[in-house]
Design a protein that fits this description.
The chain is of the alpha/beta class and 136 residues long. The model has no long low-confidence stretch (mean pLDDT 84).
């Protein structure tokens, strides 16, 4: 039986992507460097720096891996159905605060909507065009 799922996103600029996901509360918990250039080639991000379940909430951290691939522009990625078709849904405790934080950082989230069940939701794209839905 499955216990967890961790997406691996291929990104054009790993530093830009790390900055975006830090706005969502992620921290780098592991990284791999290229042996020759010493540039970061892969990172594991987690919603908890200790990468262990929170004693306060009992929740496991959310994990995300980023791999540098180079060469594919933001516009090219948005046009590729294999990337454009994926939407990652993230739940948070304070949707308006996260919306404001992303907007202040220049990421231009779409307007917040109120869903039929009363929860709030907005969409935002990361620097590589991956779509995230933030709800709560």
């Amino acid at each position: 039986m499955l216990n967890a799922a961790t997406p691996l996103l291929s990104v054009a600029n790993i530093d830009q992507s790390i900055a975006f996901y830090r706005c969502l509360g992620f921290v780098v918990v592991a990284r791999t460097l290229d042996e020759t250039s010493r540039e970061v080639m892969w990172v594991m991000l987690a919603s908890d720096a200790r990468d262990v379940p929170s004693a306060q909430t009992g929740r496991d951290p959310i994990r995300l891996m980023l791999a540098a691939h180079g060469g594919v522009s933001h516009e090219e990625r948005k046009m590729r159905p294999s990337f454009a078709g994926m939407v990652w849904y993230l739940e948070c405790d304070d949707v308006p605060a996260l919306f404001a934080q992303l907007g202040d950082a220049g990421y231009a989230p779409e307007p917040i909507e109120t869903l039929e069940n009363g929860s709030l939701q907005f969409f935002v794209r990361d620097p590589d065009g991956y779509e995230l839905a933030v709800t709560g």
